Amino acid sequence: MTDSFWAYVGIAVAVLLVVGGVVLGLLRGRAQGPEPGPEAPQVPGTPGPADADLAPDGAIGTIEHPGEVVDTEPDTTAPPSAPEAAPGVEAPEAPAGRLRRLRARLARSNSSLGRGLLALLAGGRLDEAAWEEVEDTLLAADLGVQASTELVEALRTRVAVEGSTDEAAVRGMLREELLRLVDPSMDRSLADERVDGRPSCILVVGVNGTGKTTTVGKLARVLVAEDKDVVLGAADTFRAAAADQLETWGGRVGVPTVRSDREGADPASVAFDAVAAAAEMEADVVVVDTAGRLQNKVGLMDELGKVKRVIEKRSPVDEVLLVLDATTGQNGLRQAEVFAEVVGITGIVLTKLDGTAKGGIVVAVQRALGVPVKLVGLGEGPDDLAPFDPEAFVDAIVD
């Protein structure tokens, strides 16, 4: 072989050695990974062969800072977010706020009574004719004969003893004597708490046209504002729209209504079902609406007694609220007496008290029945029903 042949063989071997070295270097570099550099991207939370580590609980995590381990598994121990209010459900105004707002309305509706009394008493001419005029003013305010006579006698005695007709002094005397007649010692609380592991039961009754179903809907708002779980019973099955109306009121504040789909259904059966449903739902209180009825209709009053008796087969009736229209004045007292005989009234709801200056009906109805006024309605708004506050009521008259 020539010298040139061996020269070509040597060159070929050298080329093979160089290529083999390059390939071997590339393979070793791929196995070891690239050297970290400033341009190497890092994805937080992505473990790799170079940075995999065990978290204290054994889970695989990434060490992003010395001594800090971030779990790659989702955190299931975080507290759940607060539940959102159901769409379309309203938050009723708290009773405390209602009292402040309604006091101003009471003052306007009874302003003529307060002004008239103060003008007479502080006029400096308290002769017999003046005292008769004071009594006439009280009678016109529906205070009632007996209560008016008592108030006049008490004021005459105090004025004679204290010898003062100063307006501030007379105002103080009038306030004290009126408050005594309204009687702040009466228990005006509602039976709205669970009793012996069952919901309390409130039966609402009244004559036609007093706004009874509306009052039940507003009462549900009062109870919801006090954080009560409420169920409504639509036992007025004779007025076509009564159940729909009550269901609408309840739906606005997320309160269920138990009703019959059949017009003219037995109201006692619906009332019974409402009480049973409230027990199953573990509600705090069930409020049963009944059909309005005239007190002189014996058959209807007997039916109302039946509704109460049927409810009592399932649960005691803890409260019977009579809804009265304050504008009817003394005419409403006979209604109240008949209802009390049939179902045993425990409290009065006076509606439309803003439409009259005859605030004395509060005293008259309490005396006639021996039960307190517990709620008053002073407007058409959904939150215009409020617990009755004797001191706020009297202050609204004399201030």
TrEMBL record:
HAMAP family: FtsY (MF_00920). Residues 32-95 are annotated as: Disordered. GO terms for biological process: SRP-dependent cotranslational protein targeting to membrane. The chain crosses the membrane at residues 6-27. Belongs to the GTP-binding SRP family. FtsY subfamily. NCBIfam families: ftsY. Residues 35-47 have a biased composition (Pro residues). Residues 48-61, 75-95 have a biased composition (Low complexity). This is Signal recognition particle receptor FtsY. Gene3D superfamilies: P-loop containing nucleotide triphosphate hydrolases, Signal recognition particle SRP54, nucleotide-binding domain. GO terms for cellular component: cytoplasm; plasma membrane. It is a peripheral membrane protein. Residues 372-385 form the SRP54-type proteins GTP-binding domain. Its EC number is 3.6.5.4. GTP binds at residues 206-213, 289-293, 351-354. One of its GO terms (molecular function) is GTP binding. The gene is ftsY. Keywords: Cell membrane, Cytoplasm, GTP-binding, Hydrolase, Membrane, Nucleotide-binding, Receptor, Transmembrane, Transmembrane helix. Part of the signal recognition particle protein translocation system, which is composed of SRP and FtsY. InterPro entries: AAA+_ATPase (IPR003593), P-loop_NTPase (IPR027417), Signal_recog_particl_SRP54_hlx (IPR013822), SR_rcpt_FtsY (IPR004390), SRP/SRP_N (IPR036225), SRP54_GTPase_dom (IPR000897), SRP54_N_sf (IPR042101). It is found in: Cell membrane; Cytoplasm. Its main location: membrane.
